[in-house]
Amino acid sequence: MAVPARTCGASRPGPARTARPWPGRGPQPGPGARRSLWLLLPPLLLLPLLAAPGSSAYSFPQQHTMQHWARRLEQEVDGVMRIFGGVQQLREIYKDNRNLFEVQENEPQKLVEKVAGDIESLLDRKVQALKRLADAAENFQKAHRWQDNIKEEDILYYDAKADAELDDPESEDVERGSKASTLRLDFIEDPNFKNKVNYSYTAVQIPTDIYKGSTVILNELNWTEALENVFMENRRQDPTLLWQVFGSATGVTRYYPATPWRAPKKIDLYDVRRRPWYIQGASSPKDMVIIVDVSGSVSGLTLKLMKTSVCEMLDTLSDDDYVNVASFNEKAQPVSCFTHLVQANVRNKKVFKEAVQGMVAKGTTGYKAGFEYAFDQLQNSNITRANCNKMIMMFTDGGEDRVQDVFEKYNWPNRTVRVFTFSVGQHNYDVTPLQWMACANKGYYFEIPSIGAIRINTQEYLDVLGRPMVLAGKEAKQVQWTNVYEDALGLGLVVTGTLPVFNLTQDGPGEKKNQLILGVMGIDVALNDIKRLTPNYTLGANGYVFAIDLNGYVLLHPNLKPQTTNFREPVTLDFLDAELEDENKEEIRRSMIDGNKGHKQIRTLVKSLDERYIDEVIRNYTWVPIRSTNYSLGLVLPPYSTFYLQANLSDQILQVKYFEFLLPSSFESEGHVFIAPREYCKDLNASDNNTEFLKNFIELMEKVTPDSKQCNNFLLHNLILDTGITQQLVERVWRDQDLNTYSLLAVFAATDGGITRVFPNKAAEDWTENPEPFNASFYRRSLDNHGYVFKPPHQDTLLRPLELENDTVGILVSTAVELSLGRRTLRPAVVGVKLDLEAWAEKFKVLASNRTHQDQPQKCGPSSHCEMDCEVNNEDLLCVLIDDGGFLVLSNQNHQWDQVGRFFSEVDANLMLALYNNSFYTRKESYDYQAACAPQPPGNLGAAPRGVFVPTIADFLNLAWWTSAAAWSLFQQLLYGLIYHSWFQADAAEAEGSPETRESSCVMKQTQYYFGSVNASYNAIIDCGNCSRLFHAQRLTNTNLLFVVAEKPLCSQCEAGRLLQKETHCILPPPSPPPAPPPAPRAPLLAAASLTPHPCPADGPEQCELVQRPRYRRGPHICFDYNATEDTSDCGRGASFPPSLGVLVSLQLLLLLGLPPRPQPQVQVHASRRL
What we know:
Layout: H1 43-46, E1 58-59, H2 63-85, H3 87-96, E2 101-105, H4 108-143, E3 156-157, H5 162-167, H6 172-176, E4 181-182, E5 188-190, E6 195-197, E7 203-205, H7 215-224, H8 227-237, E8 244-248, E9 253-256, H9 276-282, E10 286-293, H10 301-314, E11 322-328, E12 332-334, E13 342-343, H11 346-356, H12 367-379, E14 389-396, H13 404-410, E15 417-424, H14 432-439, E16 444-448, H15 454-457, H16 461-465, H17 467-472, E17 480-481, E18 485-486, E19 493-502, E20 517-526, H18 527-531, E21 544-548, E22 554-556, H19 575-578, H20 583-593, E23 598-607, E24 614-626, E25 631-637, E26 643-647, H21 652-659, H22 667-670, E27 672-675, H23 690-701, H24 713-734, E28 744-751, E29 755-759, H25 777-784, E30 789-791, E31 810-821, E32 824-836, H26 837-847, E33 866-867, E34 877-883, E35 888-891, H27 909-917, E36 921-933, H28 953-957, H29 959-962, H30 965-979, H31 988-991, E37 1000-1011, E38 1018-1022, E39 1029-1035, E40 1041-1047, E41 1064-1065, H32 1103-1106, H33 1141-1152
Parallel strand pairs: 1-33, 3-4, 10-11, 10-14, 14-15, 15-16
Antiparallel strand pairs: 2-26, 5-6, 7-9, 8-9, 8-20, 11-12, 11-13, 17-19, 18-19, 19-20, 21-22, 21-25, 23-24, 24-25, 27-29, 28-29, 28-32, 30-31, 31-32, 34-35, 34-40, 36-37, 37-41, 38-39, 39-40
Helix pairs in contact: 3-24, 4-8, 10-11, 21-24
């Protein structure tokens, strides 16, 4: 007999019950299920005790009843798809038209070797152009005669920034009146460059903080002018060449063809010497330890200068380099959580930059502690590192100790570690010890007295590192190819071939060879040009080509889609982050980095195109190295893409017949046709509007034939063939069927050839899928899954329930058409139907009810007993269909119709959690390193103005303080704060001219759900205190659906934790303090009820943990860090006398009177930089 109705807080007889299956009914529960004495009862004795709340006549349906409902649902879906989907009929149509196409085979090894060879040939042409340029530059410079008295009016060149500076009334050149003879050029639009160009001239870009009229710069402009003819000759030999660039060690950039500089809205901080391609070409890889003096004497502006200098120094490092940063006073400690050298990639450098801002000055100076820490770091051989140039960069305000004993212990006599010292700030300390340290250890001494000196003096150490390379001569003249990065002139994503240019001059007969690097020559290759060499459409929707470099970063990959790019940083997406990582892919990645060939079939997880679903699939990976480069190429093919169709429409009459079905006049009877926006012909105008694109296509086809040389015959023939084949499907199946009988809004077919046909024509008005089948999520998922794939509409596009009467909201159901021709199997098309949401929700109730036929719902009499069903008892019983991603598809609750398409946890968190805990669903977490996030507003750190050192009352009363460096620092802070407002806090991207509201790159944590291991029917009780819920779940055969029946919750206690299926913004934490003793072990995670994702720490997965298990990589195979003939006598000079107090005060008064300080013209240019 039934138990009386429950109320909130009322308990059932016996102990509390938990989520656990009935004994002997299916697999054991997943995590979170607990034992219950209730479940010791046989199910047949227990079920009659479970009554519906609010009625004594109904009980929860038994398992065999719900299995019966599930079978009815399966049969209904299968019946509709068999009648309207037309899978079998389409197979027959393909076989009937067997004479119109051939079946071609994708042979992975031959394919990947051919593409690798084509890429090699493309890059080799650029290499030859590079070598011609580098040789010419060295000869031009060697023949050039230095002119001490050269003037600006003697040089005629096109200044790429001239137009922008003339438009800026505050520009330095406008105020001063530039004397340079600047050319005025005319430009033409060139689609290859995505820019206006002039092929008759080169353009020159000079950094903002370098004085254009200096003797060094004018001589540089003089001799590099001769490169213009070589640039033009290169283009004559290879018209596909893009930007050809010479980046000079003096900061001058000369590039061809000429185009105006893309002037930012704010400060232009572009300096070629900080570009990824220049850094890679100018020196061998580096192991660098930066140590920063944070003793008490380092205060105010000096400390800020140091922090900024360290950040600028980090920007001179590339992914081939390794670095660590430490602060020191009496003791040395790392500024971040990194305890050893780590790769200088974008994310690690970001951690350093954040941590450096937390440095605080206190204590006394202890050079010994700092250098011992640095040498210990460099001697650690148990970690991955560059194993080439080793160096220590020390930033300090000065000191007396030379720490000779440390150098004797760690570095002498071989001097394998270079020491660079930086005297920072305005002070009266003797800098001789700093000079001695640098000179005694093959390094260089620099001074950074003010803001303007930072950028130049933190990058000129590259000249010193370039000495062994220059002295090595031809051996070092090797072309290197860079990571992917954003071109500064708007070309998009590019890679650059680089070649160093050496100074071949000698100071006199018998003198030593010059050891200065002149600069780096570079030639860009757009990623789109490389992509054009890969097969586009023969690999199918889920096949693709990818390429990686020695760091494991992708050069090509369909998932390489950075939403925002910063041209100051390379685009570094690891292969294991571009895909869902597993052990097989780690093995493939390692083999590719090692330059091996290979093939492997793996079972892996893939993310759907809309990133809502996860599918377990089989993929074949084949890979080969690209010779003469540091890249490796891979090909990924699903087994069903081994073969593909190639149309053979030699009958022109048939071509015309099929083509007519593309005309809009045929749509009313044959259904609407969307064509994939592919590059069918060179003269075809592209459009984002498919109707307009089809119009352009038809107009072009009236002028040319499908066999025209200007068209892609493969694409055109396949498109026209699929037009005819899908029209025959309309003729044989769709046209004579009444869609309304089965509550269908539309039927459709999509093909590899690029056709999507939607019937009837009016249904196209509400068709929102991508017209390119290869970019449509339903298409790609149908190919990867057997059976029927349901796709509910995205929640954002849903209407409210009352508006569903318009019959415009539908649920897609699709399945792949598998075609077997002999022993060859392929899937050339996907067919499906679009269900009317409202009508099928009503039908769902009936199918999951006790009706035996189309009569009135069964009702229980006063004395009878029967089971609840989803129709009569919808007030007490929740019945839903959920897809394999956890999204609601159908519900028996009318008020949930507007929630179809939502993640089910948002509809019923308690029930979704139980399904997850009982292994119906598995969760996959990953990180999107290409996301874009809105800028975070800066927080207020206090009432004082930003960046100002505030002295105490005791300081003001202390006479000594007024004569100290601290007082001088305070003066500088106040003055610079007035003149250069927020200079130190300015974001680099902002300074480059980005709008303040521009989105910036960030890391997003993604969570997707997919079906777990449970396939059988399953019953369980959800224990939520005194308000337990019984539920039943069962997978529907041959679909991606889960059928769930559950008691409706009555008590708020059941609303436990909520699972989320969405992207979560990763927020950077405050700067990490120096490492402390190991923390206590973390408490284990609780049940999934508490699993609400938190902001992911440290820019994605915990960066401090990741560096402990670095991914495999290889650096360049040749290192130039030593040459016995190197002259180390040029190691920097500086003044050791204190500044005059009167002069300083006078300068400050002049500044206060409103005379703006000029940018410093090339701070500390080497005397040997005479060209």
